[in-house]
Write a structure and sequence with these properties.
The structure is a homodimer of 470-residue chains.
Chain A lengths: L1 H14 L12 H15 L3 H13 L7 H16 L4 E21 L5 E3 L1 E3 L6 E10 L2 H5 L10 E4 L12 H17 L4 E5 L25 E4 L1 H13 L3 E23 L4 E11 L9 H19 L9 E8 L7 H9 L7 E6 L7 E6 L6 H11 L5 E2 L11 H5 L5 E5 L4 H4 L12 H20 L16
Parallel strand pairs in A: 4-5, 5-6, 6-7, 9-10, 9-11, 12-13
Antiparallel strand pairs in A: 1-2, 1-8, 3-7, 4-8, 8-10, 12-14
Helix pairs in contact in A: 2-10, 2-13, 3-8, 8-13, 10-13
Chain lengths: 470, 470
């Protein structure tokens, strides 16, 4: 039944672009102004000051922690200080997970501490047992049920370094799917080589999920040198470890998406959406994940809003600092749900959530009638060293739920070569951001948002049937 | 009185080299054999296997900890497994310092954790107070007595990166002298920017000393990003932190210098001494500090000992794995004390304790009659990319007490450009060692020890009045 309805809806969706539609255009005046904004942004340090302020004054801001509330207040105040015309919040409610303490030790003749961090969503508890090493998630998933009874599973998969972050797909699956696979094989605990590309004693956290039918077990990530160590020890002989986590779920919490707008000149009720997520993991100060994204988008909106009224773009620039991305796109999903009826008012969206490396590519999946306008945006981005591509990374995690139901989106791909050296670790701190690369990002988002907001015509935002999610 | 005696002794000392002395010589056969050993060492992985074994199977080995005893057993067994002719231990007794836990937090509106580690020798305790930042030790030392009453002193000195590690002089003084300066100004606690050159959330530990008349205060090092953070916060306004250390002195412990010998062919009672220190700080696994030095010297002795009896050098190769270097050269001082009467039997000494970077320079301070032999050793080292210098780094910390009372010493200078990224941090782990650079070190020590041991004549070891130590 559901499938029949979906098929009918999809056929309707396919039919829509066939309607006659004027090409979307960006005029020369807008292009000239975009060029001015671009140079101004490159010389401006607003982005740096914003990320410095957030990471210093708020610091780590785990969703649901006391710092979450401080971050919300910070964002409201920062939007106002940056001259945003409207600032408001929209509630986002989610289950609250807390980390209190975590440790692990090799027992016996090679007794020593291991640096671990609990995976988000892990239960607390102390387990002790022999470690069984698997080179990959696949190998663990093939383990015979019961074969790990009383043991601790260790997936020692080494994530690939890549500019586009493609290594995080398989690396992240070790984190999301590993614990459930371990439980199915009978394990009492789970450890993994962090989904990261560095060589420091700083483990990478991140969410895991347990299949609903299973009883969760303590699950943690080892730093990469600790994973090396455990691999060597298990190769030498039977190795027992203890894993002690004090963490877990504790009720619900309501945070806020914090939204700032610079009102458009002629179509103030239509918006271009940019943003980042305000929450971070608790281990670092969330500089690259995602203080940078918040700063880039806040600074871009600020630069556009600082234009004289007559030079403002036609549409409104809406900047969203999303709540709780890390634990499951809670802010992005709440936004999509709340604004589902307004999809057509969303001209185009893009989120910055892949660090602070330079943007090297731009892509937007849009109907044919908008291709010229997209090419114009690409042309204005080219002096920043940004290549126009047909296919990109999508519009960032928090806008993906809204994109799934119809909002048109663009992607500004950042160089993520070093991103997974720092991602979700204590090392995600301000010193890892290059101010010049950050300014390049601000320039790109400024150009992008300005031109998209000033275009004559749209980029194809229209309601569609949501994708069926697993 | 003491000065008069010393002057008399020194005039005697100056007189000694004036006696007629045959030049020390190294013959062509020895040079040819050194060349063979050099190439053999470059292709050999004994050094790598030794440091892998020590850092993996023993792991961190803080002097006085249960792992100290395991390290001693490991060293005895490893010497035997490597074919050393004689293996023994010599006791080294020292006060035992323990680290149990450590934490720090910014309090108030920017509440967040700071990554700290207690300085060795610090007392435990919890202090809470406003932070007063000083850009240098000098600035703190100028603080008016009583001006820091109830406050926590923070020295934010940034150590210089250099190949020869010269930045550690001023950087290390912030650690050794800072706490006492803070106490004199009335402070209740002391924190410092780690004496390091990295940008990771891994603070650098190391010993501090309190002036005897003072009551020690909790003293810790911040990781470099945490020092950045605290500097920014104090610049924004009054900043209070809490510092909680559970650590301190706990009685005495007796560890062992572990010694292995490859017996010389014709002068077995004369020795060339090489070595490293067996203890490490507890945060890392002591790979570069100083598993590498132990491995380099053990492997060098092994390669020389593996020669057919007829090709062995004239003198014995003595390899020492020193106890407790980190907390005050306890092993080195014990060795000097025990063997003071045998200085002339020590042909020449060199310790490896500056990581695992390539050796780039060789120097030996010797009498004129030994210059030709030193030049021959330099000539045999040159193909390894090692330059002959007149002045070097001395013979390493653990041999410096023996050198002070007369043993001739040589220095093989390692490239320490990255050494203080890792030194005394959790990041001092095996993955930081380049196996090829390690093999170059082994080759250099093999060549050096072989030629020094086979030389006809000596390098000037003779008792002298100990230097007056502060």
């Amino acid at each position: 039944m559901r499938r029949t309805l979906l098929a009918a809806a999809l056929s309707l969706l396919v039919a829509l672009p066939l309607q006659a539609q004027q090409p979307t255009r960006i005029d020369d005046t807008a292009m000239a102004q975009a060029a001015t904004l671009r140079e101004r942004a490159l010389a401006d340090d607003t982005g740096w000051k914003v990320v410095e302020s957030l990471t210093t004054e708020v610091g780590p801001r785990l969703a649901g922690s006391e710092a979450d509330a401080r971050a919300v207040e910070w964002a409201k105040a920062k939007f106002k200080a940056l001259g945003y015309d409207k600032v408001w919040t929209e509630p986002v409610t989610f289950p609250k997970w807390e980390r209190r303490s975590e440790s692990a030790r090799v027992l016996g003749a090679s007794a020593q501490a291991l640096h671990v961090t609990a995976l988000g969503g892990s239960p607390g508890g102390r387990v002790e047992g022999e470690v069984v090493r698997f080179a990959s998630l696949d190998d663990l998933q093939k383990a015979v049920p019961g074969s790990l009874a009383g043991k601790i599973a260790f997936v020692d998969y080494r994530m690939e370094r890549a500019r586009d972050g493609r290594g995080y797909g398989p690396g992240g699956r070790v984190r999301s799917a590993g614990p459930s696979a371990a439980i199915k094989a009978g394990a009492i605990g789970y450890v993994m080589r962090s989904a990261g590309t560095d060589s420091h004693r700083n483990p990478h956290t991140g969410m895991t999920r347990f299949d609903e039918s299973l009883t969760p077990i303590p699950s943690a990530a080892l730093s990469l040198p600790d994973a090396d160590q455990l691999a060597r020890l298990t190769a030498l002989g039977a190795t027992r470890i203890s894993l002690q986590l004090d963490c877990g779920w504790d009720g619900e919490y309501t945070s806020q998406n914090v939204i700032g707008e610079m009102t458009g000149r002629t179509k103030p009720h239509e918006v271009v959406v940019i943003g980042g997520h305000l929450d971070s993991w608790d281990l670092g100060t969330g500089a690259i994940d995602d203080g940078a994204g918040v700063a880039i988008s806040m600074a871009a909106g600020h630069l556009i809003g600082a234009l004289p009224q007559a030079k403002r773009p036609a549409r409104t620039i809406r900047v969203i600092a999303f709540a709780n991305e890390e634990q499951g796109l809670w802010g992005g999903r709440a936004y999509a749900q709340k604004h589902a009826a307004d999809i057509r008012k969303h001209q185009l969206g893009a989120e910055s959530d892949f660090g602070a490396g330079r943007i090297y590519a731009f892509a937007a999946k849009t109907p044919d009638y908008a291709k010229d306008a997209v090419a114009k945006i690409a042309q204005a981005l080219a002096p920043l060293g940004i290549e126009h591509r047909e296919d990109g990374d999508g519009c960032g995690p928090d806008l993906s739920p809204f994109n799934a139901i119809g909002m048109a989106c663009a992607g500004l791909s950042q160089d993520g070569t070093d991103y997974f050296d720092l991602h979700h670790t204590p090392d995600d701190t301000l010193d890892k951001i290059d101010p010049k690369a950050l300014a390049q990002n601000v320039a790109a988002y400024t150009v992008f948002a300005f031109l998209a907001a000033d275009a004559d015509g749209d980029f194809g935002s229209a309601p569609k049937v949501p994708e069926v999610r697993k």
